[in-house]
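Pasting as-is:
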Amino acid sequence: MSATLPEVVIVDGGGANIASLKLALQRLGYAGRLSSDAASIRAAARVILPGVGAARAAMERLKNAGLDTVIPELRQPVLGICLGLQLMFESSEEDDVECLGILPGRVRHFTPAPDRPIPHMGWNQITRQRESPLLDGIPDGSYFYFVHSYAAEVSGHTLATTDYGWPFTAVAARDNFYAAQFHPERSGPLGARLLQNFLERC
């Protein structure tokens, strides 16, 4: 990866799927650098908080690195992806854990049903609730790739919803914080557009 590419700092919270995120950024002309260093994260022009796995384990890793207090105070654009979105809320039913508190509300577990296995995995549509630079050029009803067992309820900070037994927050924003429950790095051209919007329009 060329060192001349503009750099985006990816918070190292121990999550998987970092390679595909770095590759997606590289395709857009950016270098993704993994870091758990508070000073590097504070100095970054853009920060991405990804996540795969359990909320409690992820919060413990952030606390051990002192990032549980650093991330909510960031002033540059920050994008949470999948578990990264959930960690931005006040708390999660998963192990009854307190999260970063950037977004109000509690993340809930899906109720399994014969036609709704858990985790919610695969392509699903988003329904736009509000306009945002993050969603520029992304049509209402677009499909994105989801993999998750927990989701946040709809609130005033919800930009788009998806339905899986109940409507949940698929995309959210508050001030300089943005978040997507789906994986844009695995969602084809529209996922790439969302990442580009975050990097260049937010």
